[in-house]
Every structure is written in structure tokens, then in C-alpha cells.
Amino acid sequence: MSLTACGGGDGGGGASDTVRVTLANHVWTENVKQALPEFEKQTGLKVEITQLGEDQLSDQYNVKLNAGSADIDVMMYRPLQEGKLFARNKYLADLTEQVKSESWDFSDFQPGPAQSTTYESKPVGIPIITEQEVLYYRKDLLEKAGLSAPPKTLDELKAAAAKIKESEPDVAGFVARTGKSAAVTQFSSFLYSFGGDFVDQSGKSAVGTDAAKQAYAYYGELIKDYGPANVSTDMGWPEAMAIFTQGKAAFYTEANSLYKNATDADKSKVSDQVGFAPFPAGPAGSKPYNIPSWALGINDASENTENAWKFIEWATGKEQTLAQQKSGVPGARTSVWADPEGVSTFPEDLAEAIAASTENGVGHDRPLVVKVAEAREIVGQPIVDAITGKDAAASADTAHTAFQQFLDDEAE
Question: E strands of 156-313, at which residues?
Fold first, then answer.
């Protein structure tokens, strides 16, 4: 743990001129720390930052929030990992009144991320860092195969992967995550683009629907038939990215936040040949996830909520969001993506792919439940089964029964 204390404050209960902020180790946090003197000068407030790794952060929240501690005012949290748990346990303050600030402009936030930081129709967090799934591809291999543009549909992706695999025996047509849990987030965009989801509108399991079965089968076949030889079924992003950056795959679907691994010459043998495109459209269109990987919320037990909001308002305002994005941190504000300055540090085709993703993006990339890790294990099993050539539909039916039981248990 590192503690950056900027000034004093009374440190006790009640309203204080010291705002106590707990943040994760992240580039976003480092950028905020550098800009803090400006905020303190503007407001006369002091900001005390506790900065922790993800595991330490979870441990501290588990202890302090469960105890109803008031010594955290602002908290950086993962909406899709612990957001539902925090909101259900009333750890996060309702921000309905705060977000009405006209100059700050809540309507500027993208719908997907804003939806994921909302609980029971009330905003409980403000998204600060976003991710979308895009298609990474090799420009040289497309040209060699006579393909004039990256695939726009999933049918075209399969055809292009097949063509390249046939003409380049040592190169996979496609690579992606294969691990039961790790693959769930990236599989989600395939699921949505086939017209499915993990849970339906009534809160019931949807992994046994025809759309889900088609998505599982498609994803599995793409890797089984056109993926790396002897592909393992425990790959997360580091393993899949390594195959792509070593020049061993033509197409790769992955989070845009990892793009520098592919374009950095020190990390990638194909850095000068990497292109980016929007997620290919399925029967329901192109529906990649557009998620907030991190958000800021106010501890509901805080006795310094007014000043806590002042910090959030500043840290998530248009000026700070633009500065963050210029440093490579994708923001959740629409205006920043429309600003040439906001996309100036991203590859042009990646910026265009992200912009397309935010239009129809879905605000979650995993089941929105309390016990996320357990849910991912259940809904991820048909991915592995499909990759290994088992009956994807039968596996989806089994997962559907298990997931519905999981949802029923969690609702009790």
C-alpha cells in the first residue's frame, strides 16, 4: 500500500475538508495524482489517497464496507465484478441528485457504461475507464489472401479465417481466449451479436436459448477448425495475445485496452502489420460489449458526501476525462471520443472501431450477478466443450439448468 497524503483535515467523523479516496493501481490513478494540486487549489479541499493493488483493494473493501466504516469517502470499484454486490448491500450511495449538475453533464456518458453503474434505476457510480471488444487483424495476411478489407460480418470472419489457414499452414486463421472463465468476457460479444445474452429480461437464464447455442457453436468451431494446432483450453489474454504477436494468427478478438501489446515493437513481431476493425456483425448486428472496467462511487457510510462528490465531479468532468484519454485511458464520455484531441493518441482505425462499438455496445461482458466467478465457470463450460468438439447445444442445455439453479439460489 502506498499512501499519498495531501494536507491534513480533521480525520474524524462528520464533514471534513479532507476527502479520503481509495483507488486501484492504474494509469488513471497516477494521472489523477499528478492533477490533484489543481483541484485542491480550486476547492480548498485536501485529498488523501490510499492506493492499492486489486486484491488488496478487495480485501480492504470487504473489511471496511462490511463494518460500515466511514473512513472511506470515494471508492474506485469494478462495476461488473463487485458492483451488484456493493449496490445490493447498500455500500454505494445513491447519486441521483448529484448527477443533475448541468455543467458536469451526465447525459454525456455513453449508455452502456452508465447502465452498468446503475442499480434499480438509480446511479450509484460514475464510469471512469471503458473497454470495448474489437477485431485485431494482420494487414499483410489479408493482402496476401486477396482480401481488400477486414471482415464486416461473422460469416465473413469465418470465411477469411478459413482462406488464410488453408494458404498459410503455419498460421492460425483465428485465435481468442479459450479458458472456461477467461473466455466468457470475450465470448459475450459473439453471444450478443447472435441475439442472445446470459440472462433474459425476466432475470432467467438465457444460455440455453437457440441464439446462445448458435453463438457457443460458432465460437467453438472458429477455434477448433481455424485456430492454432493442438490449441489448449486454458488460454487467457496473455497466451492468446502471444500467439497473435508472434505472427501465428491472422485474426484475434480482444479488449481494445490491450492494443499496445500488439502495436509495440518491443512486444510484437508484427507491430507494423496490425490493424483494428469493429466487431463483426452477427444475425443481430454488431453488438460488442462496451463496459466500464472501473468506476467511482461514494461510500454510503461516508459523512463527507458533499466534498466526496466535488472530487468525483472534478475527476470525471470533461477536462479530466480528455486529459486521461490523451494519455491512453479510454473514457466513458461521448464528447471526448468526438473530440480530435481525444483520439489523437490512438491508432486511427482503432479509434474508429471504438467509436462504432460505443453506438451499439452492451454494458456488460459477463453475467450481472453477485457471485461473478462462480457464474463464469458455469456459462463458460459450453465454450470449452464446443472447442473440443463436443455437442455445444447439449452443453448449453446443461449449463442452462445449472445457471438457473445458481440464479435461484442467489435470489433467495
Answer: 172-175, 249-255, 274-277, 290-298
Is residue 250 within 8 A of residue 173, CB to CB? The reply is yes
Q: 321-348 as b/e, with b when 16 or more CB fall inside 10 Å?
A: bbbbbbeebbbbbbebbebeebbeebbe
Residues 234-249, mean pLDDT to the nearest whole number: 97
User: Measured in Å, how far apart are the chain's first and last C-alpha atoms?
Assistant: 37
Q: Give 341's Cβ-side CA count (13 Å radius).
A: 9
Grid cell digits, residue 203: 432475470
- DSSP annotation of 278: P
pLDDT tens, position by position, 89-136: 999 999 999 999 999 999 999 999 999 999 999 999 999 999 999 999
CATH value of 132-289+364-411 in 3.40.190.10, 2.30.29.30, 3.60.20.10, 3.40.50.720: 3.40.190.10
pLDDT attached to residue 13: 42
User: Looking at 212-278, which runs of residues are DSSP E strands?
Assistant: 249-255, 274-277
H or E segment to which residue 5 belongs: strand 2-5
The CA-based dihedral angle spanning residues 225, 228, 230, 236, taken in that order and rounded to the nearest 10 degrees: -110
242 contacts 248 by C-beta, under 8 angstroms: no
Q: How far is it, in rounded angstroms, from Cα 237 to Cα 216? A: 19
Q: Which CATH architecture has domain 2-130+291-360?
A: 3-Layer(aba) Sandwich (3.40)
Angle at 48 between CA 43 and CA 51, to 5 degrees: 135
**Residue 359: pLDDT band with limits 50, 70, 90:** confident
